[in-house]
Specification:
extended, 105 residues, 50% helix, two-stranded antiparallel sheet, alpha+beta, 4 helices, single chain
Amino acid sequence: MKRTFAEALEHRRSYYSIGSDSPVLDEEVVHIIRTAVKNVPSAFNSQSTRIVLLLGDEHKKLWDIVKNTLKQRISPELLQRRKLRLTAALLPGMALCFILRTQRL
């Protein structure tokens, strides 16, 4: 089924049951992201986009830091709700990709 761009936007959804298994090798993910960042146009060719990619254990380590930080800063009730979201949706993933843009040229 072919959709227009507007139809694709209308039917988009978030995937909450993601897992840590991927048919794509980590090296291929890195290559795809590097290629995209290198070739995506930027204003005045400033190439100001930076990527932080966390795969595997580094991905899990970040979410452990997030959970431990939340324990220190929010109420137990709110922590429980956030913990469910972290455990069900974010932690099981295989990677995390931050896209950063610097304002300095």
